[in-house]
């Protein structure tokens, strides 16, 4: 056989397989539409139907990864199905997701990684605005950054939970790569714009490569890219998405000081999420201002062998030198061993707030 004949035969096979995949995807989509009808049928009058089910989506993705045999990698396969589910859910109900914008931010990337591309994303100018959009019902869900592996916690996000009644219904992590973007030759750069966190994440690289160039902190990396596209002599530290959006060239790629630089984002919404079988819970606890206060809050976790995944301390706004603790641990509020544990902590604390139980990030 000639090359053309061999390729022709294989491409015929691919066409036939595509036809089957397409039919099956539409069959799946029809099932999702029926799921929507069932959800509507059993919804109590006065309640609003909840179409998006984070725990079910996490379970679907975990099953896909567990049974995958290649040659496509587990994560690549899960990403494909992430998009299929996103389109199926959009047939049930098109979602609006508020995120910390503007367009081109890492938070937007996180929103698309979590929900897939069939949602409509609404960029907000602050974390408080993301919370407001979801509280008012203008957006179904919100996405906000909460911690970075190099720079630590995003305090605005934690503080927002003190006042807000929104619940955490998911988490998503993103490997953060920073690039130096400009439209000029890199030698003529006189100013570098970026968000303060990104400037900090690239501090050593900047000290070595641009020691005498002014670093200017702006509201977001996307805003930095916008300025770099308009001002002569300006460069930005931002993402590939921002480079595309503002037609800038990445003159130096992956300039972050820590190669495993990762940011964790939270998904916030109005409804509680059911157990997916592999979950995390976040709580806020204020304890008495006395010796051993934190110890007494944490002791039950140790005793019951429940793993803490994070603990943050923030000053409470209600009194000088009193604190609230943000605690993340493994398990769901409805798990048999978590129910009594939470009751005990609640009974010991001056103030206690359950912020949500949600599936551990799958992708
Ligand atoms: C189909 C459903 O609704 C939505 C779509 C899903 C899917 O496409 O698999 C999964 C969960 C929900 O977000 C469902 O609840 O099963």
Automatic annotation (TrEMBL):
Pathway: Metabolic intermediate biosynthesis; prephenate biosynthesis; prephenate from chorismate: step 1/1; Amino-acid biosynthesis; L-phenylalanine biosynthesis; phenylpyruvate from prephenate: step 1/1
Record-level GO cellular component terms: cytoplasm
Domain ACT: 282-359
Keyword match Amino-acid biosynthesis: yes
GO biological process, one term: L-phenylalanine biosynthetic process
Cell compartment(s), UniProt: Cytoplasm
Reactions listed under catalytic activity: chorismate = prephenate; prephenate + H(+) = 3-phenylpyruvate + CO2 + H2O
Site (Essential for prephenate dehydratase activity): 263
Domain called Prephenate dehydratase: residue spans: 96-270
EC number(s) on file: 4.2.1.51, 5.4.99.5
Keywords attached to this entry: Amino-acid biosynthesis, Aromatic amino acid biosynthesis, Coiled coil, Cytoplasm, Isomerase, Lyase, Multifunctional enzyme, Phenylalanine biosynthesis
Protein name (Swiss-Prot/TrEMBL): Bifunctional chorismate mutase/prephenate dehydratase
Organism name: Bacterioplanes sanyensis
The organism's taxonomic lineage, starting at the top: Bacteria, Pseudomonadati, Pseudomonadota, Gammaproteobacteria, Oceanospirillales
Gene behind the chain: pheA
């Amino acid at each position: 056989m000639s090359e053309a004949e061999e390729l022709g035969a294989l491409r015929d096979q691919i066409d036939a397989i595509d036809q089957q995949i397409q039919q099956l995807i539409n069959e799946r989509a029809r099932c999702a539409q029926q799921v929507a009808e069932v959800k509507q049928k059993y919804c109590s009058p006065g309640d609003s139907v909840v179409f998006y089910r984070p725990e079910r989506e996490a379970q679907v993705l975990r099953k896909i990864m567990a049974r995958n045999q290649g040659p496509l990698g587990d994560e690549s396969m899960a990403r494909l199905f992430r998009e299929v589910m996103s389109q199926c859910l959009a047939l049930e109900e098109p979602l609006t997701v508020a995120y910390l914008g503007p367009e081109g931010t890492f938070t937007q990337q996180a929103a698309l990684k979590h929900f897939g591309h069939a949602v409509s994303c609404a960029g907000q100018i602050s974390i408080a605005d993301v919370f407001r959009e979801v509280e008012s019902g203008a957006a179904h869900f919100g996405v906000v950054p909460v911690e970075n592996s190099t720079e630590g916690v995003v305090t605005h996000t934690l503080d927002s939970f003190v006042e807000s009644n929104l619940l955490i219904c998911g988490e998503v992590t993103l490997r953060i790569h920073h690039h130096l973007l400009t439209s000029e030759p890199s030698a003529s750069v006189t100013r570098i714009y970026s968000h303060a966190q990104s400037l900090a994440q690239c501090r050593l690289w900047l000290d070595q490569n641009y020691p005498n160039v002014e670093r200017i902190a702006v509201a977001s990396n996307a805003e930095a890219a916008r300025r770099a596209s308009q001002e002569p002599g300006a460069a930005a530290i931002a993402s590939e998405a921002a480079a595309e959006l503002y037609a800038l060239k990445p003159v130096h790629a992956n300039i972050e000081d820590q190669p495993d630089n990762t940011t964790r984002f939270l998904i916030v919404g109005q409804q509680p999420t059911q157990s997916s079988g592999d979950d995390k819970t976040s709580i806020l606890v204020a304890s008495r201002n006395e010796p051993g206060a934190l110890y007494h809050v944490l002791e039950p976790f140790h005793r019951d062998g429940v793993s803490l995944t994070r603990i943050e301390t923030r000053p409470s706004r209600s009194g000088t030198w009193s604190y609230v603790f943000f605690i993340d641990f493994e398990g769901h509020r409805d798990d048999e061993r978590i129910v009594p544990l939470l009751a005990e902590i609640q009974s010991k604390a001056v103030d206690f707030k359950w912020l949500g139980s949600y599936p551990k990030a799958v992708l």
